[in-house]
């Protein structure tokens, strides 16, 4: 990868091939993204997250229903989906060297559909989570250093405010902002070479906006002081 060619737009020389490659990669991403951790936990567990708390199938509501272990299991599962998709697409790209259909620019666009699949899963009547853990997974495969900063911010803000929703929104914005501003400057922190191109900026912007939109009800509750707090130890 030529790191100096960050703004390369050669993929648009063959638009039909580029669109076809992006479509195929996006389908793979969506199908894998639709394996929603909260829905799977509801199937094997004693409680259906659709009937508990906010009736959402994300990690936060899993924590309400199953405690810290439920939160951790769903969060890690949904985060690793993005990593798994990136590995699969990267393998396809390497094994199709010279193909006009698959290019490095297909993957960042396709990663968006992991988040879309998580939020609106095909296998579970399009009822999913809000995309935070899956978005963090996308940040990991783009730049692991920025991902660690984002997850640390998420943890710190959640601990201070006792609101996962605030930590989720701010953590995602910080991680996405770092990518959009600095991605072209830190190739040493990349997981995959294909992530060092301008298409990651557009994809990251859309993912961040999607996470914020999915939290619109939380934002309303926060501004009205009605958003639920994490209980401290000993509180009823």
In short:
With 236 residues, the chain is mainly α. It has nine helices and no strands.
Account of the protein in words:
With 236 residues, this protein is mainly alpha-helical. Helix content is 64%, strand content 0%. It has nine helices and no strands. The longest helix is centred in the N-terminal third of the chain and has 37 residues, at 59-95. The chain starts with 14 loop residues before the first helix and ends in a 13-residue tail after the last helix. The model has no long low-confidence stretch (mean pLDDT 87).
List keywords for this structure.
236 residues, 64% helix, 0% strand, globular
Detail the topology: elements first, then pairings.
Layout: H1 15-33, H2 37-44, H3 59-95, H4 106-119, H5 132-142, H6 144-161, H7 164-182, H8 199-214, H9 216-223
- List the helices and strands in order: HHHHHHHHH
Report the sheet-strand fraction: under 5%
Count of DSSP-assigned helices: 9
Unreliable residue runs: none
């Amino acid at each position: 990868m030529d790191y100096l060619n960050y703004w390369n737009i050669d993929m648009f020389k063959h638009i039909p091939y580029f669109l076809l490659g992006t479509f195929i990669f996006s389908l793979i991403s969506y199908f894998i993204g639709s394996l929603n951790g909260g829905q799977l936990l509801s199937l094997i567990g004693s409680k259906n997250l659709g009937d508990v708390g906010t009736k959402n199938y994300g990690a936060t509501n899993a924590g309400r229903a199953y405690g810290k272990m439920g939160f951790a299991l769903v969060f890690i599962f949904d985060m690793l989906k993005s990593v798994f998709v990136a590995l699969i697409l990267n393998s396809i790209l390497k094994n199709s060297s010279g193909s006009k259909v698959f290019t490095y620019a297909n993957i960042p666009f396709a990663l968006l559909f992991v988040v879309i699949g998580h939020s609106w899963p095909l296998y579970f009547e399009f009822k999913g989570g809000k995309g935070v853990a899956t978005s963090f997974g996308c940040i990991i495969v783009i730049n692991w250093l920025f991902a660690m900063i984002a997850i640390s911010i998420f943890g710190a803000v959640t601990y201070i405010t006792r609101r996962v929703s605030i930590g989720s929104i701010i953590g995602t914005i910080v991680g996405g902002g770092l990518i959009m501003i600095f991605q072209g400057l830190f190739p040493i922190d990349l997981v995959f070479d294909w992530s060092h191109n301008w298409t990651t900026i557009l994809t990251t912007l859309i993912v961040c906006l999607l996470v914020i939109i999915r939290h619109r009800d939380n934002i309303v509750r926060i501004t009205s002081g009605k958003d639920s707090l994490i209980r401290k130890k000993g509180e009823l």
